[in-house]
Design a protein that fits this description.
253 residues; alpha/beta; inorganic pyrophosphatase (n-terminal core); 8 helices; 34% helix
Length: 253
């Protein structure tokens, strides 16, 4: 389901993934002790954060809280106010935050896992670039440094993406270069989840959380739509249309 309507090459990457890659990632997550989980999102588009990412992140964070984990969002000012409406703790970092900032975040929160949902990561040209290969480095906090350090410390990490330039796509960087002719993100994660739309990958994660725990954590269509409307009022835009409307990558939800 998460791969329906694929038009950006994720169907090509699918051939290099395990059969049940979402389920596998969630099982590993739920096997961890109940502790803090850091989540990040926020992709710069036309002066704002796009709608793909925040909705999925809020959904996963809310589900984790119901299951017994303590979610904390790590993001930049482009997502200001997006998660407070869900009563999810947020730590904002500056665009020029360096490795020490993220080392300190890991030391403070001692997370059992870090999850990225539609967050741009550094590519093989040492830039942050959007789907049109335009540099957005000046508008992107280097939150991928958090994941690089987490990987070094043996912390479980998950990356959710839909285009090849997101944190986690480093797992398939050679395939992305060879098969999609794109400059890939080089940041790896313990588990990678690909989808036509990153939010869809996040919703699939939550669906498996519900199935595996027996705890009702999957929101309704109406709840997700209401949240999209809220973040659009705060400035979020459709990443494909570049318009301040409650759609995601050109899709209704």
């Amino acid at each position: 389901v998460v791969m329906q309507h694929s038009a950006r090459g994720m169907n090509v990457l699918r051939e290099h993934m395990s059969q049940f890659y979402v389920k596998d990632a969630v099982e590993k997550l739920l096997a961890l002790p109940k502790g803090t989980v850091l989540l990040t999102t926020g992709f710069y588009v036309a002066g704002h954060a796009e709608t793909d990412g925040p909705a999925g992140t809020a959904t996963v964070a809310t589900a984790l809280k119901k299951i017994g984990y303590q979610p904390v969002i790590i993001t930049d000012k482009l997502c200001r106010g997006f998660f407070e409406v869900k009563q999810i703790p947020v730590c904002y970092v500056a665009f020029d935050a360096d490795q020490q900032v993220f080392n300190d975040i890991l030391k403070k929160y001692q997370p059992v896992a870090c999850i990225s949902i539609e967050r741009c990561g550094i590519n093989s040209k040492d830039e942050y670039a959007n789907m049109r290969s335009v540099s957005i480095t000046a508008h992107t906090a280097r939150i991928d440094l958090l994941f690089t350090r987490a990987n070094q410390e043996g912390i479980y990490t998950i990356g959710v993406g839909d285009g090849g330039n997101e944190i986690g796509m480093g797992n398939l960087k050679h395939v992305i270069e060879d098969k999609l002719s794109l400059v890939p993100c080089v940041v790896e994660t313990s588990s990678l989840i690909i989808a036509t739309v990153s939010n869809w990958g996040a919703y699939a994660m939550v669906s498996y959380m519900q199935r595996l725990t027996g705890i009702h954590v999957l929101p309704s269509f109406q709840e997700i739509k209401q949240y999209l409307d809220q973040i659009v009022r705060l400035g979020s835009v459709d990443g494909v249309k570049k318009e301040n409307i409650s759609t995601v990558d050109g899709f209704p939800i």
